[in-house]
Amino acid sequence: MFSLEGLKPVDLSPRLKARSYLVDGTLLEGNTDPNGKPWVMREGRFTGDNSLFKLYAAPPGGDEVWSQERQSTHHGVHIQGGGGHISHWSGAPDDMKGLWEMPAKTFMGPAAVCNLKNLKPLAAIERGDYPAGRVNEGDPCGVKIMPEHLTHVEKGDVVLLASPFEDLERPWLSAETCSWLVLDRQIKMLGIGPGILWQYLQKAAAPGNSPVKRVLLGANVPIVQPLVNIDKLTKDRVFYVSLPLRMTKMEASFTRAIAFEEA
Amino acid sequence: MIDLNNYRVVELSANFESTVYRLDTSVDEGAPDVYNLPWYLEDQINPDDSSIEQLVGHEAGDPVWPIPPSGHHGSHIQLGIGHNDNWSDLPDGMLGLWEMPIDTYYGEAAVCFFDDLKGEPILPEHLGNVQKGDIVLMGSPHADDSPWIDGDTAYWLAEEMKIKMLAVGVPGIGWETKMKEPEPDNCPTHRAMTGNNIPIAYPLSNIESLTQERVFFMSMPLNVEQMEGTWIRAIAIEDV
Questions:
Q1: What is the ipTM of this complex?
Q2: Is A103 in CB contact (< 8 Å) with chain B?
Q3: DSSP result, chain A
Q4: Could you tell me the domains of chain A?
Q5: Least crowded by CB within 10 Å, which of A102, A159, A241, B98?
Q6: The whole model's pTM is what?
Q7: Which residues between 166 and 185 in chain B have a beta carbon less than 8 angstroms from any beta carbon of chain A?
């Protein structure tokens, strides 16, 4: 029988604390996810059996931490596919799938842990040498992640990326390296933790915009983020699981991301 | 390292058909879950990168449910704190989903499929394949006249067999009884399970497609403190 016996679970989902409006008028304060998004809920009472439940909702009109009643599928750690998310972008491939169209095995399997702590920032060689910022010549800037930094990624892996660097010093994922991950390594999912620049050129004209999303989601490789605790993993290879919910036509889904490593 | 090619993954969360309100004002109709609860989404543009990020819920609302859903729509998992800890005579020491160790939510499961039990109580003698500490998966083909979990059976599972999780196919199993009885005689399955910190995962589907009596089961809650119930993707893993 399939077993995870002897493997230590490591929670890669950040713990969210729901800001909760209770039926007795109490407000329990919450926190935010690593992207700065809160999780707001309103308690209700089920008359069928007098049990309690919480709606995934802020008060009507929002409150001081969230400006509207409803929240999106991108709060907390979530997984996203291309279908329904970027399928309206010019040049997006026709065969791009939504999360709900991918088999469960897409979202679990052996994973390569890539904690890029050795990719220390470099001095920019020329102005604009970093995709996200206006670095000037000589400024410190993050290193472009290359295939040689990802040597233990095996064919068919999930890839978990993180680094200890911040802001403009974060290593960055290029379209070329994403293409290598897709075409050469045939990865099945990318998990992104802190310290990785992967969203840039978001306002560039299509098809030059958001290259990481275009390459990965365009090849039906889901992206899961924002993960935590990748730096706590002690092994280069783990078994990883983060299944999306099974709602059809939902472009992104809340998920619980867990790595299992040999104890 | 585990090779998934040696295993079959069986989906136990029913497909939940979202109703989606599109940017062009069209509506992709969906379908409610087995309790007639809907799942609404509304497309909106993320101004940062012009991708679509869906809002959960829709302002048009629904005749049976307010605008946004609760954590109890579709397949979900629940435990006592924040859910039924307002009931009288429950024990001290009840926990919330977020306070349980992660390994509560996966492990070896006994598959209990009641082909021949129609409109009858499920008793310990019907659960001969359940081992101490198991996750228990229950299902039946009887949608209309389902077998139901007797209160004493619920306590036997919780306190004698010390099961780790109860996972129930609906329709097919009546897992709760006496919902309108006065406390503390109400809802014995809820009381037995949440009072002993045993999560309940439901409504599940597809249990009839499992081919083995024992499987590996996984249904992880979201990592959100104060969520008394959370949506899940429940799977079973069988040997090929």
A1: 0.95
A2: yes
A3: ----TTEEEEE-SPPEE-EEE-TTS-EE---B-TTS-B-EEEEEEETTTTEEEEES-PSTT--SS-SSS--BTTSSSEEE-STTTTTTSTT--TTPPPGGGS-GGGGEEEEEEEE-TT---EE-SSTT-STTS-PPTT-EEPPEE-GGG-TTPPTT-EEEEE-S--GGGS-EE-HHHHHHHHHTS--SEEEE-TT-B----TTSPTTSS-HHHHHHHHTT--EEE----GGG--SSEEEEE-PPP-BTT-SEEE---EEEEE-
A4: 17-73 (no CATH), 78-262 (3.50.30.50)
A5: A102
A6: 0.96
A7: 176, 179-180
